[in-house]
Design a protein that fits this description.
This protein is an all-alpha fold and 104 residues long. The chain is built from six helices and no strands.
Length: 104
Amino acid sequence: MTSKEDDNAEKTMLDPLRGESYSISRAINPPTSDEAQDVLLPFQSADTVFILVFSTNMLNTDLHNPNMNDEKCMTLEQFIKNSRGINGGADLPREFLQDLYFEI
């Protein structure tokens, strides 16, 4: 993601999905048409979004928890490594994950 518009689109898509697993699982349903599939780009499936939301929540907690030492906080490289293969067996674009990390 390189533009502010892309950033806002990403936040608009992911913000409603933050929260408990039950809420997340109810909010995400597999696409039922070609139009719905277009909404998931660059994600291969709803499972990718589901995993990314949990990963993002964990990162947010890790980076902003006052009880965590700075040395133990997840680094960008660790976040990218933890996100390998979550997109239908493929990796999400590094730039996308990097932008997400620094937004958090």
